[in-house]
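Action item from last week, closing it out:
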Amino acid sequence: MNIKHCAVLAGLVVAVAASPAQEQVKTRAEADALVKGLKYQQGEINLEGGLARLNVPAQFKYLSPDDTEIVLTRLWGNPPDKKRLGMLLPADRSPLDPDRWAVVISFSGDGYVKDDDAGKIDYADLLKKMQSGVKENNKARTKQGYPSIELLGWAEPPRYDASSHKLYWAKELKFDGQPANTLNYEIRILGRRGVLVLSAIAAIDQLGEIEKETPQILGMVNFNEGNRYADFDPKVDKVATYGIAALVAGGVAAKLGLFKLLWVFVLAAKKFVIVGFLAVTAWFRRLFKREKKTTA
């Protein structure tokens, strides 16, 4: 598959409140200490007890699930999630660098996703349903004091390669109060028992760099033999209750057919709210500003 785009999640999930053990750092010294303790890896790395493998070249570095939680939760302010399988970063970047970006890897084990609907999906119609769901959900979001979200359209329409069983798409979003739009890129790699999810965190102006690296990133990640899409055994393996369209629509509601209420960014925990990448950047600026005042 000739995929031009990487899975870019330019809008970060930021916790309004977090458990005491997962509080976001408040000083640059704390942040530096956490980064110093991270253990980067390269070469061949097994994920989830042999489910899949990474082959990380010298241009990249990998962080374990535990270290990934430190970066995403303590440094970048995301809600905790023990299901992440790790993350990839450029070898020459620190999680605190202004031009940082990363690809977060996770796995959804809902079963074998049939792809026989891939060529039949009307993505223009699906987009309208998703946009309707977003508008409906905004009523609850604004009532709870959260900013509304507008799904403007496809930045890149969904595309599925039946030979590699890889799916990708991009959405353009607008968060209320944010001056710039957000690009949401996603990649799904279908396997025997579920789907590998690749979501990259980046600023919009890094899109060109990440597009350039996409082919290499895709080549790093593969299911191990026995877990590949071709290894599916209908006699013993579970089949997911949804198909390609629901993967694009996203969320648990999608597999239940609840498109009216669907929004990929809706979280069950009301203490979490989605904000744009600019808000995280602003947090970094405040952190660094406080540190300068302390050392002045």
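Closing note: Residues 8-118+153-233+270-295 form a domain with the Jelly Rolls fold (CATH 2.60.120.1690).
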